[in-house]
Design a protein that fits this description.
Elements (H helix, E strand, L loop, with lengths): L4 H12 L15 E6 L3 H13 L3 E6 L5 E2 L4 H5 L9 E2 L2 H5 L3 E3 L5 E3 L4 E3 L5 E3 L2 E4 L3 E3 L23 H13 L5 E6 L9 H16 L4 E6 L7 H11 L4 E4 L7 E5 L4 E4 L4 E3 L2 E4 L3 E3 L1 H5 L11 E2 L4 E2 L5 E3 L13 H19 L9 E10 L2 E12 L2 E4 L5 E2 L6 H23 L7
Parallel strand pairs: 1-2, 1-9, 2-5, 9-21, 11-12, 11-17, 12-13
Antiparallel strand pairs: 3-4, 6-7, 7-8, 10-18, 14-15, 15-16, 19-20, 22-23, 23-24, 23-25
């Protein structure tokens, strides 16, 4: 039996309770030192909310990059709908809010002593340490693919602005009757619907600029996120231009020949394409793996009540690197995890316990610039971990009207502006 509207709104109130000014968990001011490594959606959100709810706590954010391209809406840049500047963020607003932003790599991290050493020899000690290193690629399953060939066959799947622009430029330069191929990894990976939104918006680009071109999706999975909604949209807008070949048909890519721009599939097919986007299998960022924060899965196990590592006390792992259970690896999930972590740390430093909350996840994708689709899910704590509440989510209707689809596309753009502002403190210029 599904949840009533009132129960869903009660779940939403759990998120609202994590708002910037509504914590109220303790009359005792929190004091201490928190060091956050990684300035993406999880780390930046945690830093911003800690400063707001526990102003006496010293918060240091360590991030090696001055500017980051966001994963959300990167596909609009790939498809030429927005410039790269529209999805570029920095940490100036966090610094202005009192976060000590340090631009540096981390030389060493001791999770037992909760100390971070920087390349210049400086050492930062913390009462709580937050690690948000994002993902790394597992290069081994795809023979011939690695860092040396990503310029020729871009992944465009991280905060690297150059990768996203490279893929966009390759699409612009391809022949009018060319072939685009996207190699899609097995689960789990960052942003489950992302490859299919990318295919959709590339399909839109081809319709507009390369009307005789074709797009192949070579997938390591049997099924994919929002499959029915994407397939219906592809059939309506792109006809046979987009072809999906899944794992049962031998679609998983097992090798690449970068020099000949060729992919080799598990089914033994050799697929040559003018533009090749390889999205490799993924694991937690190296920092988490190198300092004993991950297990045999190569992801970091955490207690969802606080996102504290189950391997080291007062060390928290956020975002794509952690085992989020049913929560997707996404900017939305990382943002919410950052809020939970900030409130839990502030409560701990004040000598209290943060009780946790029910959460809602909403995920938007664009099939065309004016055809948006969405899914949502409610999660509740079950012991130390979140579990999806059965029948508590929802999806866009397959038979949505043109106006409703355009409305959801508008919601997607509004959601992006709001989550960037909520995370980094700055609006964006997304169109």
């Amino acid at each position: 039996m599904g949840l009533s509207r009132r129960e869903l709104l009660r779940g939403a109130a759990g998120i609202a309770g994590l708002g910037m000014f509504g914590a109220g968990f303790s009359a005792t001011p929190a004091e201490g030192r928190v060091v956050i490594v990684g300035g993406g959606f999880g780390g930046a959100t945690c830093a911003r909310y800690l400063r707001a709810i526990a102003p006496a706590v010293s918060v240091t954010l360590i991030e090696r990059r001055t500017r980051l391209a966001t994963g959300p809406f990167c596909n609009t840049v790939v498809a030429g709908l927005n410039p790269i500047e529209a999805i570029t963020v920095d940490h100036r607003a966090l610094a202005a809010a009192g976060v000590n932003v340090v631009q540096a790599d981390v030389r060493d991290l001791d999770p037992v002593a909760r100390r971070v050493r920087l390349p210049d020899g400086d050492t930062l000690a913390a009462d709580h340490l937050v690690v948000a290193p994002g993902i790394d690629f597992d290069w081994f399953p795809i023979e011939g693919y690695g860092p040396k060939v990503t310029d020729a066959l871009p992944h465009a799947w991280t905060a690297d602005r150059d990768q996203i622009v490279n893929l966009r430029n390759q699409l612009r330069a391809m022949p009018e009757d060319g072939v685009v191929a996207i190699a899609i990894p097995p689960n789990p990976y960052r942003c489950p619907p992302g490859p299919y939104e990318r295919a959709s918006l590339i399909g839109h680009f081809l319709e507009q600029h390369k009307p005789r071109a074709k797009l192949l999706l070579l997938d390591a999975k049997d099924h994919f996120s929002k499959e029915a909604l994407f397939r219906a949209g592809w059939a309506e807008h792109y006809g046979e231009r987009i072809e999906w070949i899944g794992r049962p048909q031998g679609g998983a890519v097992v090798a690449v020949d970068a020099g000949n721009r060729t992919l080799v599939t598990a089914g033994g097919e050799r697929v040559r394409a003018d533009v090749i986007n390889v999205i490799p299998p993924q694991i937690a960022g190296a920092l988490a793996r190198d300092v004993d924060l991950t297990d045999i899965s190569d992801w970091a196990p955490v207690d969802h009540r606080s996102f504290e590592s189950t391997r080291h006390r007062r060390v928290h792992v956020l975002g794509d690197a952690c085992q989020g259970g049913p929560m997707p690896k996404s900017g939305y999930a990382a943002n919410v995890q950052g809020k939970i972590c900030a409130h839990a740390i502030a409560a701990s430093l004040a000598g209290d316990t943060f009780a946790g909350t029910r959460l809602i996840n909403a995920c938007y994708s664009l099939v065309t610039p004016d055809h948006g689709i969405s899914v949502s899910q409610v999660y509740d704590l079950n012991g130390r971990h979140f579990a999806a509440i059965e029948d508590a989510g929802g999806t866009s209707p397959l038979a949505a009207s043109v106006d409703d689809r355009a409305r959801v596309a508008g919601y997607a753009r509004s959601w992006y502006r709001n989550i960037v502002r909520d995370t980094f403190g700055d609006p964006t210029n997304i169109g």
